[in-house]
Amino acid sequence: MSNDVPNSDDCDIDLAAEKSQAEAVAVAAAAWRSAWPNHCTACSGWGGTSYLEMHGFRGGSGEQVFDPCGALPRASTCHRCGQDGLSEDGDGPCRHCGWNYDDGEPQ
Ligand SMILES: [Zn+2]
Ligand SMILES: [Zn+2]
Hints:
With about 110 residues, the protein is α+β, with helices and mostly antiparallel strands. Helix content is about 25%, strand content about 15%. A hairpin with a 7-residue loop joins strand 1 (about 50-55) and strand 2. The longest helix has 28 residues, at about 10-35. Bound molecules: zinc ion (2 copies). One zinc ion (ZN) binds near residues 43 and 71. One zinc ion binds near residues 81, 83, 85, 94 and 96.
């Protein structure tokens, strides 16, 4: 007589998938860090953080806001390769690695 709950296995599969996903990100992040050892650790190489700012109450519209990283003393320093590759105002793309606020440590 089997009392197996039909969906009981799904939980395990989801957990395993979530774990391997996290491991894959960790591996990618380690590879990224070794590729860009001089990256800005304050922003993990992204040049800033972006977040969704919601207006009004739930159901209201949201706006993607980019908050530039100010950790580097010179705006022209690339947040990924750490070299002086951006414009004076910190605009990309980087002359050294081509980074343009489009790549950072996988997370
Ligand atoms: Zn930074
Ligand atoms: Zn660069």
